[in-house]
Design goal:
Distance between the termini: 18 Å
Number of helices: 3
Number of strands: 0
Largest sheet: none
Order of helices and strands: HHH
Structural class: mainly alpha
Helix content: 40-55%
Shape: elongated
Strand content: under 5%
Length: 83
């Protein structure tokens, strides 16, 4: 998340998206739709979304390979710059 943002429930984010759309002038909405559509297509091309079965298989492979970490360590060293 970007600085200052807090975790939001999906329905809250959807509601905010709807509110932003409603505030967008009608004549700009076709462009907004194109932007959202292009964004979705772009992220699907970069990292195709796995279905539930594929996701489970990937997770199971990680477990069998020992590529697991304690949840308590999830955010350890998150502040370290990588550039």
């Amino acid at each position: 998340m970007c600085g200052g943002e807090k975790m939001m429930k999906p329905n809250t984010i959807t509601e905010q998206l709807h509110a932003e759309i409603e505030q967008t002038p009608e004549h700009y909405r076709p462009l907004l739709l194109r932007l959202v559509h292009s964004f979705r297509e772009g992220i699907e091309e970069d990292a195709p979304w796995l279905n539930a079965a594929e996701s489970f298989r990937e997770g199971w492979k990680d477990i069998k390979a020992g590529q697991i970490y304690a949840i308590e360590t999830l955010w350890d060293d998150i502040h370290i710059k990588t550039d």
